[in-house]
Amino acid sequence: MEPPGPVHGEAEPFSKALRSLVNNRLYSDVRFVVGQERQEVFAHRCLLACRCNFFQRLLGPEPGPGVPGPVVLSTVPAEAFLAVLEFLYTNSVKLHRHSVAVTFGLGPLQERCIAFIEAHSQEALRTRGFLELSAPALLLLLRSDKLCVDEADLVLAARSWARVGAAVLDRPVVEVAAPVVRELRLALLAPAELSALEEQNRREPLIPVEQIVEAWKCHALRRGDAARGATCRRRRGTLPREHHRFLDLPFK
Fold it and tell me: Where does the BTB domain lie (predicted)?
């Protein structure tokens, strides 16, 4: 006689029960203070630690003696943080353009968030959440070929993101922008657009001069390896320009 197989309960009641614990003070043993509004969020240490390496490292193996103080995450938008918690508790979350987060190294959620932004690029660039993205998160986005947005708009968005970061961190715009602007594909801009960008860059440095020179080189050569690298590859939302016929193959 074969032993009985595993018994599976219904997934929906289980997920609903865990969702009820998201930001619930009941049995909570860890508090977060999140975002610039300093919103208090309640969570459960063992669940976070077993579901996510980020929280495992952040929270440590066990709380210290006495009542632990809150964990402050002032640079993470509260809505995005709550979306991450919902995913950790229930293994599902409904993404909105204001709550997309790519901060905590959660592979499946990160991939879904990037796919969401790729499909709603124009809307996403106009949200406060975009301006509050970390540099690694923005870097991931700017490496994507599937963004449904033109490069000129991405340059403007990157400048706005760097200005906000510079104000918050009290650092120069060019320093804040340095980790991400290399992924801007300036060769996709028309000569007139590139000239205007060069002039603005003199007034408010954002992009290394040598990067602009490389873009001009692609225009000058018009063919060959220098005009076929990643910086010349069109994105899904790239608007056609006359010189694009000299660059790489059309977007697939």
Answer: 28-97
Q: Does residue 82 share a domain with residue 123?
A: no
* Distance (Å, whole) CA 7 – CA 203: 67
Q: What SS3 class is residue 9?
A: coil
Q: Which helix (H) or strand (E) holds 73?
A: strand 71-73
User: Rounded to whole angstroms, how far apart are CA atoms 90 and 21?
Assistant: 10
Q: Which domain holds residue 19?
A: 14-59+70-90
Please tell me the distance from the alpha carbon of residue 246 to that of residue 226, in angstroms, as a whole number. Answer: 11
Give the residues across from 73 on adjacent strands: 34
Shared domain check, 135 and 86: no
| Tens of pLDDT, residues 118-158 | 888 988 898 877 887 888 889 989 999 999 999 999 999 99
Nearest to 237 by CA among 134, 117, 113: 117
Q: Report how far residue 161's alpha carbon sits from residue 103's, in angstroms, rounded to the nearest whole number.
A: 16
Same structural domain for residues 84 and 105? no
Separation in Å, CA 19 to CA 33, 63, 71, 83: 20, 24, 21, 11
Residues 112 and 51 in one domain: no
d(CA 227, CA 150): 19
Task: Identify whether 9 is part of a domain.
Answer: no
Model confidence at 64, in pLDDT bands (50, 70, 90)? low
Residue 127 has what DSSP assignment? S
